[in-house]
């Protein structure tokens, strides 16, 4: 069964993205942070001190994603995070199936190693690919498209191992053209919060009931605050 929750301009589905996303039809942008393909084993005693990596493996958040979910017939633009091991495939998809694309970088100010004797991931990549009519909105276009932003830690993670920072998602959403945004791997709802704050309609999908509930709570809060701002503006 697929649970559906509507909150203002947001519609959230609890279930499998690969089943639900194709049925949702066209959105102006798909903004997604899918499971990364990473090797999280090794590193001995150091690794033992990082229980978050166990969670990533237990929840299959280290197995990558099927790029068939990035479908240019279902979105005007796609913003997709990916780890090194899937980046070449993602760039090839962007090159072959979209009009233009940009490789963008989130430079983390507080990187944590995944395992010893490997590069520390102090940058994460995302690709912004678009078709005609969905060129980046251009509100914030940096020369090197680098965002230097701290990764959430502790309680700010919303009890999720890979929550994206609000500041990063706000910057991404400011550059998204159009009105409707879908995130098929919603997690705790970071894309949805940024979409609502940017005045867009949001559709999110998440399979994990705990993360889904967190997303409902965060997006309800964002919708309530956005309504309060609207009312204040009407009074002024
Ligand atoms: C990298 S996390 C996204 C985190 C999110 N950006 C945030 O800030 O909270 C990927 C999410 O996709 C979810 N997920 C993985 N496979 C899925 C699937 N097939 N359908 C729906 N959700 C899925 C996981 O439960 C996880 O919460």
TrEMBL record:
<dbReference type="InterPro" id="IPR029063">
    <property type="entry name" value="SAM-dependent_MTases_sf"/>
</dbReference>
<dbReference type="GO" id="GO:0005737">
    <property type="term" value="C:cytoplasm"/>
</dbReference>
<dbReference type="InterPro" id="IPR001091">
    <property type="entry name" value="RM_Methyltransferase"/>
</dbReference>
<feature type="domain" description="DNA methylase N-4/N-6">
    <location>
        <begin position="142"/>
        <end position="216"/>
    </location>
</feature>
<dbReference type="GO" id="GO:0009007">
    <property type="term" value="F:site-specific DNA-methyltransferase (adenine-specific) activity"/>
</dbReference>
<dbReference type="InterPro" id="IPR002941">
    <property type="entry name" value="DNA_methylase_N4/N6"/>
</dbReference>
<protein>
    <recommendedName>
        <fullName>Methyltransferase</fullName>
        <ecNumber>2.1.1.-</ecNumber>
    </recommendedName>
</protein>
<dbReference type="Pfam" id="PF01555">
    <property type="entry name" value="N6_N4_Mtase"/>
</dbReference>
<dbReference type="GO" id="GO:0008170">
    <property type="term" value="F:N-methyltransferase activity"/>
</dbReference>
<dbReference type="GO" id="GO:0032259">
    <property type="term" value="P:methylation"/>
</dbReference>
<dbReference type="GO" id="GO:0003677">
    <property type="term" value="F:DNA binding"/>
</dbReference>
<keyword id="KW-0808">Transferase</keyword>
<comment type="similarity">
    <text>Belongs to the N(4)/N(6)-methyltransferase family.</text>
</comment>
<keyword id="KW-0489">Methyltransferase</keyword>
């Amino acid at each position: 069964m697929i649970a559906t929750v509507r909150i203002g301009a947001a519609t959230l589905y609890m279930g499998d993205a690969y089943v639900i996303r194709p049925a949702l039809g066209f959105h102006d942008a798909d903004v997604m942070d899918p499971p990364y393909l990473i090797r999280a084993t090794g590193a001995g005693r150091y690794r033992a001190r990082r229980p978050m990596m166990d969670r990533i493996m237990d929840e299959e958040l280290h197995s990558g994603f099927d790029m068939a979910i990035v479908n240019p017939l279902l979105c005007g633009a796609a913003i997709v995070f990916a780890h090194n091991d899937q980046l070449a495939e993602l760039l090839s998809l962007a090159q072959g199936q979209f009009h233009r694309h940009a490789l963008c970088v989130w430079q983390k100010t507080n990187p944590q190693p995944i395992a010893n004797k490997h590069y520390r991931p102090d940058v994460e990549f995302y690709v912004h690919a678009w078709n005609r009519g969905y060129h980046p909105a251009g509100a914030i276009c940096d020369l090197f498209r680098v965002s230097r932003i701290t990764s959430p830690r502790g309680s700010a993670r919303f009890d999720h191992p890979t929550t994206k920072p609000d500041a990063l998602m706000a910057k991404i959403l400011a550059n998204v053209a159009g009105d409707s945004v879908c995130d098929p791997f919603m997690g705790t709802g970071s894309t949805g919060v940024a979409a609502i704050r940017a005045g867009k309609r949001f559709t999110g999908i998440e399979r994990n009931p705990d993360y889904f509930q967190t997303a409902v709570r965060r997006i309800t809060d964002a919708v309530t605050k956005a309504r309060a701002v609207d009312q204040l503006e009407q009074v002024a």
